[in-house]
Amino acid sequence: MAEDIDLRIDRLDDEGVLARVPFQAKLVRPGGTLSGPTIMALGDAAMYAVVLGRLGRVEMAVTSNLNINFLVKPKPVDLLADARILRLSRRQAVCEVSLYSAGNEDELVAHVTGTYALPL
């Protein structure tokens, strides 16, 4: 899926992850907005990246919960996702992702919270 949407990681550090999906006409749905599945995929992939960035390669880490609130229509520019870990335990990582249009960081397009189940 990451290849399908051309997912890119702009930043990975102790603060979290900044991921990006470049604007592409093929990802726009009727009505001129970026498709919901693309927005959800970016949020989920950003959570996965922040978990792997903290823990290293954990192949069996899987999404166990994902909640998304779509807030405004994204602009026809790159979509960015700023992800961070809220809580990390032995069995799970609870994450938060703020998604916004490039150049418009003050207006959230969507807000994601989710949990990754970690293998024992």
From TrEMBL:
<dbReference type="InterPro" id="IPR003736">
    <property type="entry name" value="PAAI_dom"/>
</dbReference>
<feature type="domain" description="Thioesterase">
    <location>
        <begin position="31"/>
        <end position="105"/>
    </location>
</feature>
<dbReference type="Pfam" id="PF03061">
    <property type="entry name" value="4HBT"/>
</dbReference>
<keyword id="KW-0378">Hydrolase</keyword>
<dbReference type="GO" id="GO:0005829">
    <property type="term" value="C:cytosol"/>
</dbReference>
<protein>
    <submittedName>
        <fullName>Uncharacterized protein (TIGR00369 family)</fullName>
    </submittedName>
</protein>
<dbReference type="InterPro" id="IPR006683">
    <property type="entry name" value="Thioestr_dom"/>
</dbReference>
<dbReference type="InterPro" id="IPR029069">
    <property type="entry name" value="HotDog_dom_sf"/>
</dbReference>
<dbReference type="GO" id="GO:0061522">
    <property type="term" value="F:1,4-dihydroxy-2-naphthoyl-CoA thioesterase activity"/>
</dbReference>
